[in-house]
């Protein structure tokens, strides 16, 4: 068994697709209409056959509440690995990404957290 798709609740699928592809550099793999919403997945450019990130609409009240509460508490919704966190931090800052935590050493890892503009805090980590 392996993980093939993981989902992330977003307030606006179109805006999320733009942010995750244009700012973060993920590649759109699927974009299929599903009723009033879309099945949108992205993959890492370094692993295009790997795990897909599903941009899931947060239209269900439980999803909306979950997303709002973890954001308000400063809890990242997910984590992405990076090879060089300082380079990635600079690259994303240049693209206008807002960080809530600059790269910070925590034991054997360095982490940083940014706002994805779609209702989530996202953590990047360099191991």
UniProtKB/TrEMBL annotation:
PROSITE patterns in the record, alphabetically? VOC
Q: Where is the VOC domain?
A: 2-127
Q: What keywords would UniProt list here?
A: Dioxygenase, Oxidoreductase
Please tell me whether the keyword Oxidoreductase is annotated for this protein.
Answer: yes
**Top-rank taxon:** Bacteria
Report the GO molecular function annotations. Answer: dioxygenase activity
Q: This protein is called what?
A: Catechol 2,3-dioxygenase
């Amino acid at each position: 068994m392996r993980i093939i798709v993981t989902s992330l609740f977003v307030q606006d699928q179109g805006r999320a697709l733009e942010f995750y592809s244009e700012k973060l550099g993920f590649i759109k793999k699927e974009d299929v209409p599903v009723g009033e919403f879309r099945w949108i997945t992205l993959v890492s450019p370094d692993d295009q056959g790997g795990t897909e990130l599903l941009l899931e609409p947060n239209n269900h009240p439980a999803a909306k509440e979950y997303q709002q509460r973890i954001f308000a508490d400063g809890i990242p919704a997910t984590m992405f690995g990076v090879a060089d966190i300082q380079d990635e931090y600079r690259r994303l800052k240049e693209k206008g990404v807002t960080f809530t935590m600059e790269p910070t050493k925590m034991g054997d890892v360095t982490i940083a957290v940014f706002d994805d503009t779609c209702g989530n805090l996202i953590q990047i980590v360099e191991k």
